């Protein structure tokens, strides 16, 4: 279950007292499907022993902004949280809702190019090839 492949790029950002939010955006004109798979949220060097709440800010089906807490980290009890490739559709904003960090988020930006009609045509061709195989096979025997 490798999260990364040929269409994946390593992603990382850091939230701090001075940079409380980070927005991950993609070019919507590039005709590809983009998924951000978050794997780890962790406190990094210099963090105080305080609650650090990280929110994901996105839009719901009615295009209203919603903020959902995904991690509550504290140096003494939970400095790291594995999110098991939590999938998000960009654009998405990560916000440090409480605490001063620094909190590091890492994961994978997966890019899948859409094939469109040409992909379906390729499928039809491969099905035709498979149909021809049985008639060729007995001839070789």
Automatic annotation (TrEMBL):
Keywords annotated in UniProt: Acetylation, Chaperone, Methylation, Nucleus, Phosphoprotein
Biased composition annotated in UniProt, kind: Acidic residues: 118-133
Nucleoplasmin core domain location: 10-110
Main location: nucleus
Keyword Phosphoprotein among UniProt keywords: yes
The keyword Chaperone appears for this protein: yes
Gene Ontology terms for molecular function: chromatin binding; histone binding; RNA binding
InterPro entries assigned: Nucleoplasmin (IPR004301), Nucleoplasmin_core_dom (IPR024057), Nucleoplasmin_core_dom_sf (IPR036824)
Span list, region Disordered: 117-141
GO biological process, one term: chromatin remodeling
GO cellular component terms attached to this protein's record: cytoplasm; nucleolus; nucleoplasm
Coiled-coil segments on the chain, per record: none
Oligomer and partners: Interacts with NPM (via N-terminus). Forms a pentamer with NPM at a ratio 4:1 (NPM3/NPM). Two pentamers form a decamer.
Function: Plays a role in the regulation of diverse cellular processes such as ribosome biogenesis, chromatin remodeling or protein chaperoning. Modulates the histone chaperone function and the RNA-binding activity of nucleolar phosphoprotein B23/NPM. Efficiently mediates chromatin remodeling when included in a pentamer containing NPM3 and NPM.
Entry's family note: Belongs to the nucleoplasmin family.
Protein name, per record: Nucleoplasmin-3
Species whose genome carries this gene: Atrichornis clamosus
């Amino acid at each position: 279950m490798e999260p990364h492949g040929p269409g994946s790029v390593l992603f990382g950002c850091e939230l701090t007292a001075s940079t409380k939010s980070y927005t991950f955006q993609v070019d919507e004109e590039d005709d590809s499907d983009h998924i951000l798979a978050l794997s780890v949220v962790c406190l990094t060097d210099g963090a105080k022993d305080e609650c650090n709440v990280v929110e994901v800010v996105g839009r719901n089906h009615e295009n209203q902004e919603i903020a959902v807490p995904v991690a509550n980290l504290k140096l003494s009890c939970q400095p790291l949280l594995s999110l098991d490739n939590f999938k998000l559709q960009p654009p998405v904003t990560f916000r440090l809702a409480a605490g001063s960090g620094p909190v590091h988020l890492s994961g994978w930006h997966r890019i899948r190019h859409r094939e469109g009609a040409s992909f379906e045509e390729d499928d039809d061709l491969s099905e035709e090839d498979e149909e021809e195989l049985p008639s060729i096979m007995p001839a070789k025997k």
